[in-house]
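Sequence of DUF3822 family protein (Parabacteroides absconsus).
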Amino acid sequence: MAVLIPELLSKESENYIVSIRLLPDGLSFSGYNPHIKGSFFIHEEKWNPSDSYLKHLEDFFFAHECLAYTFKRFYVVQANADYTLVPLSLFLEKKADELYSFVFGHSADRQILHQPLKDDNQIIIYSMAPDVYTFCSRSLANPVFVHTQSAVFPLWKQRSLTKACRVMFASLAGGRLIIACYEQGQLLFTNYFQVAEYKEILYYTLYIWKQQQFDVQADRLYLSGEAQQTKELKMALSAYIMNVDIFDYPSEVYLMGTEILRTPIDLIALYLCEL
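Predicted 3D structure, token representation.
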């Protein structure tokens, strides 16, 4: 299936910020021109997860010459990948593989990547399939590799700085629940969980709320994810926590275009924060 892209993309590609978001069963290609309101576009493609991911990726690249354009910035976003955070003061680049292996076990079949979190003293370490990393590195002009959470953490940090109370953020996508707790921009706790049932989401959220000694009346919980699911979660969690809200975005997001409202929080954060 051909990607439906703006006509201006071929003429003014150097003004566009674009991304390829790699998923276990496909990808999305999206972007926008910061100088043109409403210019955001996104194309999603699903593949058979039992087939060769690299072969699907190669076919997608070869079928779309627009990927060879020179862009203002081209992000390669790794979704649904395991990750860990390491304080900047303890991080050594040559030890990145060792640190990752300490958390997730050793494996020779992975490319270890890392990047600093914007405006924070943390490094996020994650992995990507080596053949996918090599192909993207060779096929794209100056790609910037990022993990889905690399822009979300700074976005959450910014929001917590505007609140006098402590804040918990819970994001649900692709069967993964990510939770982070902040106090005035300071990260107190973060972890992620694979969840298959609704009751698991409630359990982890409420357990961590209690574990971190959050106040059910004074502190705040923000939810993000698929619209209907977050609406249902808000109703359920409001029985236990007074201040539960669905995460709302800065006004500049809505100027990018209506299509961006159906994208996951990590892509929205990426285009907002521009790592």
